[in-house]
Design a protein that fits this description.
Blueprint (H helix, E strand, L loop, with lengths): L1 E4 L10 E4 L2 H17 L3 H14 L2 H17 L5
């Protein structure tokens, strides 16, 4: 199990997510982002807009995703 924050995953807060794989971590982050968007959180809304801009370029999005995956892989496992 590893830990990353919303901010580490492109979000806007220090909420921690715990998951054994990067794909599960990304899903937790996505769910949290949607919840914050539904609550009208301005900081998360901006982060989501930034992510949508990134998604317009598949190469840039793939590079971002792989960088986050590498960051996840380099983290120590939680005790």
């Amino acid at each position: 199990m590893k830990t990353m924050t919303c901010l580490q995953l492109g979000g806007a807060c220090d909420m921690e997510f715990h998951a054994p794989t990067f794909n599960e971590m990304a899903e937790l982050s996505k769910k949290h982002s949607m919840e914050m968007f539904q609550q009208g959180d301005a900081d998360h809304f901006k982060a989501m807009n930034d992510m949508q801009k990134l998604m317009k370029s598949p190469d840039a999005m793939n590079e971002w995703f792989e960088n986050k995956r590498s960051e996840f892989d380099s983290l120590p496992c939680d005790d």
